[in-house]
Amino acid sequence: MVEIVEVGPRDGLQNEKVLLPTEVKVDYITRALDAGIRRLEAVAFVHPGRVPQMADAEAVMAAVPRRPGVTYIGLVLNRRGLDRALAAGVDEVNMVVVASDEFSRRNQGTTTAEALDVWHEVAAAGIPASLTIAAAFGCPFTGAVPVDRVLGIAASALQSGPREIAIADTIGVGVPTQVRTLAAELGALGVPLRAHFHNTRNTGYANAVAALEAGITTLDASIGGIGGCPFAPRATGNIATEDLTYLLHGMGVGTGLDLPALAATGTWIGSRLGIQVPAMLGRTLD
């Protein structure tokens, strides 16, 4: 069984040009829940001037349906974001630490070490907290990221007891051999792992299978395959929830998700954004 964490409402919408109304975002989230999603990154508590797509985070959280067994995650980057997330009633927070200093400065205005200091403060807030190591496979400004660099970040983060650590291929440069190596090294630390892949170079789904084969059973994906990082040049969408689910089901791996409902939601969000989404499954259905 694989747990798919739906990140479309946050990592998906944050890189799209169209600013959707709050009610459409809530509809997107509701449709994801109706398709079986139970853990969902709903919003980011970041500066609205930097990421205007997330400016209504509190309004979204006030309107989302509260259902038994559903966990809403809020992304935070600093203490101000954490305070907003706690006040908005998220169930869990996710903190991002970027593996390269240059990308970290452009994304968060801090070095990696400074971001880790913030992580320790976030983890002490008394709410379940996960850490995503962004650009774990490569930086758009400085190139390849050494495995030891990622391991050092993870080792530091472990001091504050994260719920899990996610390895994120933020710019979509990783390949399966790298995924297996990094998963094995991090697995030796004894912390639950999650994986987050982008399909920029058409390797995202192969990387997801490699992560699964390496023992990672929690994968991020975005319904419609929308999104990317607004601070990474030419970054494209996440792997699509519906396409990943089709792949996993074909391999005999359960997800608990309704495949036609996911595909229909992917097509629907594309119509709201005025784009043809990267996800392929919806194009095969009548």
Task: Describe the protein's architecture and organization.
This is Hydroxymethylglutaryl-CoA lyase. Keywords: Lyase, Metal-binding. Belongs to the HMG-CoA lyase family. It comes from Dactylosporangium maewongense. The protein is an alpha/beta fold. It has one domain (3-284): Aldolase class I (TIM Barrel), CATH 3.20.20.70. It has helices at residues 8-12, 22-34, 57-63, 79-88, 101-108, 112-123, 147-158, 176-187, 204-213, 241-250, 259-273, and strands spanning 3-6, 39-45, 71-76, 92-98, 129-134, 138-139, 143-144, 165-169, 193-197, 218-221. A six-stranded parallel β-sheet has the order 2-3-4-5-8-9. Strands 1-10 form a two-stranded parallel ribbon. Strands 6-7 form a two-stranded antiparallel sheet. The chain is globular, with a radius of gyration of 17 Å.
Going by helix content, strand content and strand pairing, the class is alpha/beta
What's the oligomerization state? single chain
Cα gyration radius (Å): 17 Å
Question: How would a textbook summarize the main sheet?
Answer: 6 strands, parallel
Q: CATH H-level name... which superfamily?
A: Aldolase class I
CATH architectural arrangement: Alpha-Beta Barrel
**Number of E strands:** 10
Discrete helix count: 11
Q: Mean pLDDT, rounded to whole units?
A: 96
